[in-house]
Each structure stands twice: as structure tokens, then as C-alpha cells.
């Protein structure tokens, strides 16, 4: 039995946290034994892991103490593989595992953070403490080579995957919740409300579009540092722009929607785009990170330049006025996820990587 210790910064329900959950619970338990360590915070994903019988260790709020506690945990559990998610967990795992005889130390790079050069530098200079890093898409891999200077032979791309069946045949309840009719058009985004996700740009576009489309409504799901700012900006249109906060019924919300929009300024491989496509929605998204690797422009959705509100408005308008195109794009989007971005494919790719790297270690490579 191969022991794997997954390390993550926190366990709130973000993209990386959900992927860790799906990966840990989906592993072949006859071959792999997963345990999880969180540097800070308990979070609802920890509860999900508990229900799956996966032990979670919470290491405290102090990042320095968390590294020391992680080192003690590694010494006690003696995992063959340490696999970390998110920047702080990547760095903490490298230092914590150093010199303890861990066979394989794997990091995960999930975004293109060009505005944080110190992180890029620290990732590069600590490479000798890791075996390799998994990039969530080819765009992230290329960025890491070019901007962080990490050698290509230390990087492997494994794209996210989801269980598309969870988004099929779901009853949509959002229209009833908001008092909308079937003739109303619902444009939805699900995102953390911060600079990266560009929701402010979507709000600006929505304020211009709503007078042109009296049956259109915008649903914004998520919380974050820009929540109060967005709430103030939409106060005059709060009967048409619905701020739903943090929700755990996203499949039902997507089932109630006509169009999904993600106007991010930078990205990795956004799970929510996969989810929206699996739900059969056409997607308008910024052409950043892994979005162009998932969305076929003009077939499954429309790609726009990040921060370009005029382009974003044109794309949303093009789909609002054309129900046939929405249906065509949505059907093609669902097929794309079923064929290329399944949860099973992602889990199998990680398992194969674990076997391969352990075999190389045993052969002395």
C-alpha cells in the first residue's frame, strides 16, 4: 500500500480544494492510502473528507508552526509520496519533507500569477527539494517555464476533470427562488469576488446590457474581498443583478441558467467552466490560462480578451439574442467535457504518475 500525504493551504471550497477532495476519494484504495494535511483552517471540504473516511490533520493558523507540525506529521506517517496543492502548501511541503526519506515530493501549479514575482523566484530556487510539479494546463506549464524558469523536465501537465453525470438531469430551482419565469434569461457566474476573476467588469457590462434586455437577469455566486464594492455598484439594479453569496447548490443554479460567463484576468484551469459546460451551458470566458484549452471558440462558447468590456458585451449579446446558438454551443460543450475532461481520466493520470515516479526512485533515477 502506497501512503500519500496530500498537503493544502486550507479547505474552503475552492477549485484546488475540490480537486484534492475528488482525487483523494477516487484513488484505488487497494493500492493507495490517502491522508490530508491543511496548513490552516478547517473548512467544509474537511468535513467532506471526513465523511469519506479520509483522515485530515489541521496544522494551525501560524504558517511557521504549520511547517514544523507538518514535518513531525511526515516523520510519524512516513508517506512514500507528499503531494501538495497551492503555493504555501508547495513551499511548506518541500521544507517539511527535506531529509526525511520521502520518496516523491510533488507540487501543484494551478495558475499564472505574473503579478507575484517573489513566488515565481521562490518556486524556482526550491526546486531541488521537489521531485516534480503538476501543472493544471499547458498554459500554466509554459508560463512556469518562461516566467519562473523551472526546467521543463520537472513539469507534468494533468488537466482537471469532473464527474459530468452530476450535472445531468438536475432540477433547476433558482428561477423559482428569484421569482423568474421560463421566458427570462439568466446569465450566471460563479467566482471568488476578487480582482483575478474580473467580476467587476461583468457588473459594468451587465449595467449596460440590462436596459437592452428587459427579460435578462444576472446571477453572481461567490464571496470575496470585492463583495461590498460589487454590492454597492449593483444596488440600483438589485432586482436584476442577484448577488447569491456562497452557495453549495451550484449544479441546480447552472440548471436554471441560460449562459455562463467567467471574465477572469488570469487563470489556471477553472473548474467552474468545466462544470458549466457539463451542465450544457454555452460559456463566455476570457482567453486566459487553460480556458482556450477547454473552450473551442465559436463551437462550445466564445473567448474574449481579459478586461475588454466591449468585447465581453458583444459576446454576451451574441448569445442572448440567439437561442439556437446557445443550444448548439451548450450541447457541444457537454460533449467536450464527457470526452476530454472526465474525473476518471484525471484520477488515472495521477495514479500513473505516482507509479512512474516511485518506480524511477527505486531504480535510482
Notes on the structure:
- It is built from 15 helices and 13 strands.
- It has 365 residues and is α/β, with parallel strands linked by helices.
- The protein has two domains: 2-161 and 342-363, 3-Layer(aba) Sandwich (Rossmann fold), CATH 3.40.50; 164-340, Rossmann fold, CATH 3.40.50.
- A seven-stranded parallel β-sheet has the order 3-2-1-4-5-6-7, sandwiched between helices.
- The radius of gyration is 21 Å and the shape is elongated.
How large is the share of residues in beta strands? 15-25%
Shape: elongated
CATH class of the largest domain: Alpha Beta
Secondary structure class reads alpha/beta
Task: Spell the H/E element sequence.
Answer: EHEHEHEHEHEHEHEHEHEHEHEHEHHH
**Overall pLDDT, averaged?**
95
For the record, the count of structural domains works out to 2
Number of helices: 15
The CATH topology of the largest domain turns out to be: Rossmann fold
CATH architecture verdict of the largest domain: 3-Layer(aba) Sandwich
Radius of gyration: 21 Å
* Major beta sheet summary: 7 strands, parallel
Distance between the termini: 22 Å
Strands side by side in the biggest sheet: 3-2-1-4-5-6-7
Amino acid at each position: 500500500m502506497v501512503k500519500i500525504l496530500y498537503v493544502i493551504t486550507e479547505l474552503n471550497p475552492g477549485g484546488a480544494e475540490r480537486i484534492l477532495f475528488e482525487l483523494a476519494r477516487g484513488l484505488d484504495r487497494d493500492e493507495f492510502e490517502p491522508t490530508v494535511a491543511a496548513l490552516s483552517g478547517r473548512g467544509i471540504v474537511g468535513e467532506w473528507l471526513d465523511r469519506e473516511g479520509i483522515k485530515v490533520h489541521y496544522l494551525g493558523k501560524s504558517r511557521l508552526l504549520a511547517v514544523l507540525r507538518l514535518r513531525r506529521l511526515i516523520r510519524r506517517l512516513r508517506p512514500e509520496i507528499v503531494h501538495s496543492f497551492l503555493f504555501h502548501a508547495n513551499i511548506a511541503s518541500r521544507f517539511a519533507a527535506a531529509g526525511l526519506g520521502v520518496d516523491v515530493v510533488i507540487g501543484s501549479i494551478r495558475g499564472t500569477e505574473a503579478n507575484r514575482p517573489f513566488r515565481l523566484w521562490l518556486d524556482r530556487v526550491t526546486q531541488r527539494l521537489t521531485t516534480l510539479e503538476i501543472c493544471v494546463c499547458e498554459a500554466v506549464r509554459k508560463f512556469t517555464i518562461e516566467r519562473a524558469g523551472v526546467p521543463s523536465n520537472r513539469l507534468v501537465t494533468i488537466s482537471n476533470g469532473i464527474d459530468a453525470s452530476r450535472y445531468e438531469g438536475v432540477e433547476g430551482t433558482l428561477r423559482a427562488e428569484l421569482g423568474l419565469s421560463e421566458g427570462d434569461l439568466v446569465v450566471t457566474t460563479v467566482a471568488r469576488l476578487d480582482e483575478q476573476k474580473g467580476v467587476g467588469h461583468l457588473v459594468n457590462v451587465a449595467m449596460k446590457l440590462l436596459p437592452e434586455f428587459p427579460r435578462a437577469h444576472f446571477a453572481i455566486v461567490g464571496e470575496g474581498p470585492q463583495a461590498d464594492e460589487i454590492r454597492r455598484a449593483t444596488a440600483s439594479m438589485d432586482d436584476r443583478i442577484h448577488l447569491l453569496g456562497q452557495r453549495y447548490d451550484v449544479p441546480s443554479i447552472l440548471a436554471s441558467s441560460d449562459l455562463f460567463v467567467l471574465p477572469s484576468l488570469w487563470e489556471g484551469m477553472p473548474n467552474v467552466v468545466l462544470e458549466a459546460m457539463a451542465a450544457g451551458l454555452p460559456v463566455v470566458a476570457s482567453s486566459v490560462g487553460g480556458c482556450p484549452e477547454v473552450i473551442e471558440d465559436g463551437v462550445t462558447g466564445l473567448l474574449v480578451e481579459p478586461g475588454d468590456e466591449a468585447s465581453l458585451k458583444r459576446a454576451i449579446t451574441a448569445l442572448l439574442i440567439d437561442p439556437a446558438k446557445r443550444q448548439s454551443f451548450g450541447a457541444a460543450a457537454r460533449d467536450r467535457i464527457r470526452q476530454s475532461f472526465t474525473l476518471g481520466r484525471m484520477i488515472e493520470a495521477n495514479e500513473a504518475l505516482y507509479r512512474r515516479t516511485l518506480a524511477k526512485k527505486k531504480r535510482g533515477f
